[in-house]
């Protein structure tokens, strides 16, 4: 069946706007969106802002780039390697 048979012979009327322009319904929808005010920020933007604020307040130590964790880790690794060498398991 062709499209003409599906529409049962009813044709749409002429369009009230220029080719490529928005129709009346679209213009109304755009105006509603504009009057509704600003949209909410995307979830990923909100999360990034919260993470940054938490890092600045000291709640996210992994993103603060604090060097004392690196020093403590080096000392711990050194001690572990020293114990392993004493036990004869160096390099494992």
Query: Which geometry do the CA atoms define?
Result: rod-shaped
Query: Total helix count?
Result: 4
Number of strands: 0
| Rg, alpha carbons | 33 Å
Structural class: mainly alpha
H and E string: HHHH
Please summarize the sheet with the most strands: none
Helicity level: 40-55%
Q: How much of the polypeptide forms β-strand, as a percent range? A: under 5%
Mean pLDDT: 77
Q: In whole angstroms, how far apart are the ends?
A: 76 Å
| Poorly predicted tracts of residues | none
Structure commentary:
The protein has a domain at 66-92. Helix content is 54%, strand content 0%. The protein contains 4 helices and no strands. It is rod-shaped, with a radius of gyration of 33 Å.
Brief descriptors of the model:
92 residues; mainly alpha; 0% strand
Sequence-ordered SSE layout with sheet pairings:
Layout (H helix, E strand, L loop, with lengths): L2 H4 L17 H12 L7 H14 L11 H20 L5
Concise description?
The protein has helices at 3-6, 24-35, 43-56, 68-87. The protein is mainly α and 92 residues long. The radius of gyration is 33 Å and the shape is rod-shaped.
């Amino acid at each position: 069946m062709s499209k003409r048979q599906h529409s049962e012979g009813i044709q749409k009327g002429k369009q009230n706007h220029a080719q490529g322009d928005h129709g009346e319904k679209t213009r109304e929808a755009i105006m509603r969106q504009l009057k509704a005010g600003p949209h909410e920020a995307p979830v990923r933007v909100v999360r990034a802002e919260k993470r940054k604020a938490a890092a600045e307040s000291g709640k996210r130590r992994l993103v603060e780039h604090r060097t004392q964790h690196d020093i403590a880790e080096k000392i711990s690794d050194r001690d572990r390697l020293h114990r392993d060498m004493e036990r004869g398991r160096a390099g494992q």
